[in-house]
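Changelog-adjacent note: as of this version, every example in the card shows the full chain rather than a window. The one below runs 216 residues end to end.
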Amino acid sequence: MSNRLLDLCEAHGERKIYQAGQQIHQRGDKEPGLKVIQSGIVKVGNYGLDGKYQLASYLSRGDSFGEVTVIVNKPRTHHSQALDDVIISHLCRKKFDYLHQHEPEFNTYLLTSLAAKLNTALELMDDHRRLPTHVRLAKLLYKRCHQNGINSIKLRQQDCAELLAVTVLSLHKALHKLTEIGLVSTSYGAIIVLDKINLEYWLNEHLSLLPVHYSS
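Full-length structure tokens:
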């Protein structure tokens, strides 16, 4: 979301502030509204019947969630929690409809955002069926490395395990494999990609579909 659109959402939405660890909403909540993150990190996931938490994603400034509540009038599908101090612009249905009718950029953002989320969901589902854990981990690290422009990925092993929907033990074994072949190393609270080009070549040899290429 562009800074201009963020400013519009802030002007039309209700400003909500959450402290680190505070719940934003629960799965099943029916209050309609689009939430747009102005600052901070939001953790999105679900608890199973066994009480185990499954992380879905981290959202940051310019991201939004809750489209399903205003577009198709369905309850929220995930729990969301403030990972640090978070400021959100909450667009109720009336404000959402206003921006939808008067701001073409808002509609373009929604379409692009929903398409990207659908693409990510389909890709993750396909990867889970096709690829061993260490290849999925390598792909996750490569994407983060490319998106952030740095080789040090600030992710704990627990975070990686939740993102890949595997146990911490399985994640540890996968990370050990990547370390053994010299693709990554570890430091406190981070995983370091030693050479992004080598990682890309390795990925292209180990994926079961056409070679991956994220560069513009």
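Structural remarks: The longest strand covers residues 53-59.
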